[in-house]
Amino acid sequence: MKQRHIWFVLLLALALVAAACSNSGGDTTTTQATTTTVQETTTTTTRAPDPDFVGRVIDAGGCDYGGRVEKITAVDEFTVEFDLCGPHPAFLAQIAFSVFGIQPEEHLEATGGAPIGDPVGTGPYSLKEWVRGDSVVFERNDAYYGQVAPHQTAVLKWATESAGRLLELQSGAADGMTFPGPEDFAVIEADPNLVLLNKPEPNIFYMGFTDIFPPFDDVRVRKAIALAMDRQRIIDTFYPPGSEVASHFTPCSVQFGCEGDSWYDQDVEAAKALLAEAGLADGFSTKIFYRDVTRGYLPTPGNVAADIQAQLKETLNIDAEIVQMESGEFIQQCSSAGQCDGIHLLGWTGDYPHITNFLDFHFGDGVVQFGNGHPEIYDLLTEASQTPDSAVAGPLYEQANNAIKELVPMVPIAHGATAFATTSNVEGAYAPPWGQVLFNLWDNGTDTLVFVQGNEPISLYCADESDGESLRACAQVVEALYSYTPSGDVQPQLATECVPNDDLSVWTCTLRQGVVFHDGSTFDANDVLASFEAGLVASSPLHTGNSGTFDYYSYLWNGLIDAEG
Amino acid sequence: MTSRKTVEAFEVAATEANLLESGGAGQWGLTFRRFMGRTSGVIGLSIVTLLVLMAIFAPVIAPYGPDQVLIGKEDVRPREKPCVHILGCDPEKPQHIMGTDGNVRDEFSRIIHGARVSLTLGFFTVTLALLVGSTLGALAGYIGGWFDNVIMRVMDVILGFPSLLLAIAIVAVLGPGLENALIAIAIVSIPAYARVMRAQVLSIRETDFVSASRALGANARQILLRRVVPNAMTPLVVLATLGVATAILEAAGLSFLGLGAQPPTAEWGTMLASERNNLFTSPHLVFFPGFAIMITVLGFNLMGDGLRDALDPSLNR
User: Fold this and answer.
1) What is the pTM of this model?
2) In terms of CA atoms, which chain B residue is nearest residue A305?
């Protein structure tokens, strides 16, 4: 009897120590932190890795294929090592992206690398049912190591028109919705039953010039347009409250985003003088290309296009014809191919919180969207992206931002404000700047939470998807090695930590122990390897997916391994 | 839409009609008296007259330019509700009797200027279709034989397509724009005029006065231009009047789909399209262009109906 007491006390002490150690990583949200502590004492046990464990390896056989990954190794049951082809300061921000969610090795093999409608993960919910054309239903994961959802069921529905989503919210049929229309911001704020959640989404809307086409090959013409635009007028008239005139291409919330000089203020006389200097004092004819697709960075495309047309006419006597293009063709022609002979209106929403996601994607070496590109900009970007020391990288980005201002490949217009809306009885509701909203942090006081978004997910295997609608559904079920906190910082998720070497080219991740997938299998390093193999290795039998393009794998890791051609 | 049925009805009416060579002031005076005796026709004529006046004097009537953006010039927001001072709107606020649109332009001025675009387009489309269609129809009817067969089968093929769908296809090839929309609508309306003209020619060339002319030594060109065509014009005039309504409606349809007038042109269909998502928040921006299209089409239809009744010789008393 006495012995039992001693054992009990010892166990308790051990548990306390374990709790203190495992929580030292630190959670950022207060509500989450308290619950997580309790959960972690019960589930996190540390044990020595299994010596018989045979780890998988992804080996690109060198870096000649042009990608970022040289080798990924499952060192032991709970350690994964990423050997990269160069320094990668944005590694953590990148692997936190929900596209890199981990699914069980066995499940990926059983589904032939295409768990399109039946994802298995470690997240706060398991998938109960996907009723095509109607809703996705999630069921609480009671064994979750994080904060267990307060409700049994979460339902994800969709309605294309923002007015339709708002109607669901107003009628009480839904607890939360994505992206109310700009004209509805005031309606929601005036309604005591609704709450507007500002979503500090880092985005940019710009007017791009492809400088292989005259007269945009003359920097004076581009600069004249930059000086002529009344950007404040566009924000005041067509953007919801909270939107800002862009001082730089990258929003200030991203590190180094707004180092360097602010963008030009409007100066019509100087603009006219520059245009006259370029020999176009009487203006010229051009085209404005755009797509009629609403985004956080461009809530009213048609009106903004018409206003830019009017401003160009008023200030510089430029006759611009508005050309509306189909979305896919627009992206292909104006962005991917750089073949739009005029001004194109496009924007960008950040994928992960690193400046490379903004600048390198648009102004990096080999990008043809703005014409031939400028070595004055991309040389700096290449150098900065391979600089592990942020004290050195900072001034490089400052120079790059100033070079962009000087060469005007585009005119940054706005950082658009976006929002979610909820009913006022939801507690813990948030709209994160990065990553996806997790429903387990929302409590509406009932057993079912309903959330309405814009469209149906394309598939629930998000390694091969790139739209926010699919990613939002996947994030409830599948988790990645890191994740974003509600405020937008990265935090360890399925890894307890990832540690780089000195030049940030080798990252060693220690995995969380004792995590169980929804199908009952235990999470280990081979699941990480299988998940990355499915996305990254084009020759793998697991590389199937939905459409099979794996856009984000190929874009964020600079190309797939063993890709043909 | 000029349906096949309407066209056939015209052909039957034209063939059955005992069209004689009677012309001159007496006949037209009688027609005018008959037209004025019908209320619907008079209403149609009044509407059309008003619209034409509105189009001609648009710059005088409209308080602002159609493309004039009022941001920074007046204290107005996008999609402001209508404000009419005599109806109790705050005198401090600038008067916009139809409100402002999404780009802060005066909606009333745009509607007024829109009449110019729509009427011009209607008249030019019909003129083009009438010229081409009646020439083809007259030649087919007068020459006959294989020529007739080829022309009319081509017309049948065009008539076989739903007219708006064919117009969309033509614009897709030519590229969006007002001129191309005009050409497309003209092409799809050609068969109606060709068929009516051919039917007229077929019946008239068998009449005695044509035979008389031929006996007196008139050649084919003289007979066709001096005898046949003038006498075949009556049903075409009616068809053309109704055709203007159809053309305006189709042009608005094409513009609504983004294939007709391009921004910032103040065209009713384009205006409707650009504000269609704001139906519930700013109904006035959808109502006024829609109403303008409706009233214009109604005007031309009423006038066309009145003309048909007035010109129909079977109603001779």
Assistant:
1) 0.77
2) B263
